[in-house]
Amino acid sequence: MLNLSILLEDSARHHPDKIAYIFGDATYTFSQINAMANKVANGLKKLGLKRSDKVALSCINSPSFPIIYNGILKAGCTVVPLSVLLKKDEIAYHLSNSDAKAYFCFIGTADLPMLREGQSAFNEVPTCEHLIVITEILTSEAPIDEMKTFGTFIKDEAVTFANIQTKPGETAVIIYTSGTTGRPKGAELSHANLLMNAISCVNLFKIVHEDIFITVLPMFHIFAMTVKMNAALYLGITNVLIPRFDVLTVIRAIEKNKVTVFVGVPTMYWGLLNAKSGNINIESAMKSLRIGVSGGASLPVQVLHDFEKRFDIPIYEGYGMSEGSPVVTFNHFGKTRKPGSVGTVIWGLEVKIVDEKGKELPAGEKGELLYRGHNVMKGYYKNAKATRDTIKNGWLHSGDIAVMDEDGYFFIVDRTKDLIIRGGFNVYPREVEEVIMQHPDVSLVAVIGLPDAQYGEEIKACVVLKAGSTVSEQALIEFTKQHIASYKYPRHIQFMSSLPLNASGKILKTALRKPDN
């Protein structure tokens, strides 16, 4: 038997008075978090929820998230984490598709009206029977428009609970993919999937009990859920929670709490690298950091070099996906790091590169990345066809184009769906982006394909310049032409003040492809 909530329970048992979470000026110990999670489990049991029932959760990075997440697990139920940016129709789809019987929704803010969207969605899904509102003050019992608050939900519940003993292979979490093609699919991750991946991450980066984490990536996203929340719970590590990425807020929190490990996506490293402030010595504020971890998307090599030069902090880049719980490969701590590479396969997994016919390719040849091992999801919830198309003979087909070098290091070339075919030639946007990033005036870039009557697709670069820099479209095109094959350079350049990002900080190329951009 195995229940993922043992991570919290074990830390509460061995480090009851240690601070588990810092949120603003408030602190919460492991024993406090565990007691409140027990209250949640008791409350769910009182509602009549049973083993394997689904419970949705929309919540910002706050102690409420791990409390409710672990309470759901303790009750033997399945957590369905939802992005805080979803709108009514999207939430309704997720509640319905996941068969959620209860829904915890944060009240939100004026800029992020989560409850308004969540309540409207809840009202459209009759199979979801219970809505509990998470307020800013967790213990608040005042009803909101006659809706039950979290404070009321846990008020009379006991602080102890006998965990439902789930099996290792039972579904712990259904994490929905971004849905860039068609409707989002729910990847079923088991208790064993998530536990093994969290432990693997701890070993991978030589994380210790004395480390201090900061979590800026949203915990509803699998990257932060595993690498920051579950890994920290496993070792009893103090975790500083930040609801949204604001550069100066993050830097101040790192300095104040002497944070040692930062995990982010490339746009966060870009933001920290370009941070400017007259009243903060940014280099000094970042001195407590011993390691940076990057994932979620490819980190431009130029950003990596510039960040390490400015802050003297090594960045370890890796690769993963929701269906892989998420980590698949990484540059291992203490071993050779190769800039631009997502490293070598983590313990317990196998990875190979295959051609279109499924034949394994030798080092140096591009193909689709496949993997198998303890991290592979059970499948897509209620979608047998998509599961069969993705997992074949135990191998998960990632849809990512990669190449392996002679040393076993993997390099992600691009997503299959992002591949640009111009006049019959394959163009990988990542390769073009790396060249453009070398221009001294360029701060950030995203390369996409546009429909073209003559060539099928044409290449466009969406560029953010460094502050105070100016360069013409033609000059940037000429620069790129000097460093790349003639069929690969962008024919169109669009200068932008910023690039659209999703909730986890990834660049939204789907938004850039819309006709009005």
Shape: globular
Overall strand count = 27
Helix content: 25-40%
Number of helices: 16
The average pLDDT value, as a whole number, equals 94
Helix/strand-derived category reads alpha/beta
Rg: 23 Å
Unreliable residue runs:
none
How do the strands line up in the largest sheet?
Answer: 2-1-11-10-12-13-14-15-16
The major beta sheet can be summarized as: 9 strands, mixed
Q: How many angstroms does the end-to-end distance come to?
A: 52 Å
How big a fraction of the residues is strand? 25-35%
Describe the protein.
The chain has 517 residues and is α/β, with parallel strands linked by helices. The strands form 6 sheets. It has a 9-stranded mixed sheet with strand order 2-1-11-10-12-13-14-15-16, with helices on both faces. A 5-stranded parallel sheet has the order 4-3-5-6-7, sandwiched between helices. α1 packs parallel to α8 (222-235), α7 packs across α8 and α10 packs across α12 (301-311). The longest helix has 18 residues, at 30-47. The radius of gyration is 23 Å and the shape is globular. The chain starts with 5 loop residues before the first helix and ends in a 5-residue tail after the last helix.
